[in-house]
Amino acid sequence: MLILVCYDIESYQNITSIIPQLVKQLKQFANKAIISVSPPIANGIPLIINVEHLLSEEDYPSN
Description:
The protein is of the alpha+beta class. The protein contains two helices and three strands. A three-stranded mixed β-sheet has the order 1-2-3, with helices on one face. The longest helix has 9 residues.
């Protein structure tokens, strides 16, 4: 489990924007990983991502 705690909203937004890259790197180590990203207190709810259930880039439909 990768736990990220953000103390300001800007860092929370930056981290959530790179979730696909984090997943790609984490999948190299474990297929059953979980990423938890917590925003600053009172600024939203934690984002919890189960890496095992995410599609890889190759699995996304092409436009």
